[in-house]
Amino acid sequence: MMTAPSTFSLMAAALYLVVAGAAAVACSAASWHRQIAWHRMAWATIAAIFIGLALMRLIGVEEWLRGDLRMMLYAEQSYEKRRDLQKPLVVLIFVIVMSMAGGVVYLLATGAKGRRNIAALTAICCTGGLTFLAALRLVSLHSVDALLYGPVKINWFADLGMTIAVLACAIRYCLIVRRRQG
Predict the structure, then answer these.
(1) CB atoms within 10 A of CB 39
(2) In 60-153, which residue ranges form alpha helices assigned H by DSSP?
(3) b/e map of 126-148 (b: 16 or more CB within 10 Å)?
(4) 54 and which of 13, 104, 175, 180 could share a cystine (Cβ 3.0–4.6 Å)?
(5) Rounded distance, CA 59 to CA 9, Å?
(6) Would you say 66 and 138 are in contact if contact means Cβ atoms under 8 Å apart?
(7) Cβ distance 17 to 56 under 8 Å?
């Protein structure tokens, strides 16, 4: 059953849409100021991911999927064995994200120099981190939940911090490319 999004989900969705707009402006600036092709592709992809994250918050996709998965496990009488499925998924998600992060570090270490590249790569890393966080919330392993939703609320700080970092990178990128052309 679908429920109305919470106030926090609505605020997060609004912030995601602001970031999507900033990423779209950065994509447009990259195109307008004839920046390298991967900059345009990165900013367009980031904008699309943040639109997707906003829609997920507004529609309640995470809660809906978790509920459906729980019902399916109960129906199959395998809810007690869910950790057997969750642990490999957490490992797989972690390996994918670490591989992506390793690729970005490799790019930085082997010549992706310059403020524009750093801004774009930082935004890519933070967007990947948010995607990782959303995937972890979907898998919902108890020990992961205890870490994410515990007394420190790492989930909130990580989500908000990475979202604001992407927004700052998009703004910085626009300022850099506009100054170079001015």
Answers:
(1) 22
(2) 61-75, 82-109, 115-139, 142-149
(3) bbbbbbbbbbbbbbbbeebeeeb
(4) 13
(5) 10
(6) yes
(7) no
- 16-27 pLDDT, tens digit per residue, is 999 999 999 999
Q: Are 47 and 166 in contact (CB under 8 A)?
A: no
List, for residues 120-179, the tens digit of each pLDDT value: 988 988 898 888 888 877 776 555 666 666 776 777 888 888 999 999 999 999 999 988
Cα(14)–Cα(51) distance, rounded to whole angstroms?
10
Token pair, residue 162, equals 């990475």
Could you give the CA distance from residue 107 to residue 128 in angstroms, rounded to a whole number?
Answer: 15
Judge residue 104's burial from the number of C-beta atoms within 10 Å of its C-beta, 0-12 exposed, 13-18 middle, 19 or more buried.
middle
Single out the residue of 123, 104, 113 nearest to residue 164, CA to CA: 123
CA–CA distance, 125 with 120 (Å, rounded to integer): 9
Identify whether the C-beta of residue 119 lies closer than 8 Å to the C-beta of residue 173: yes
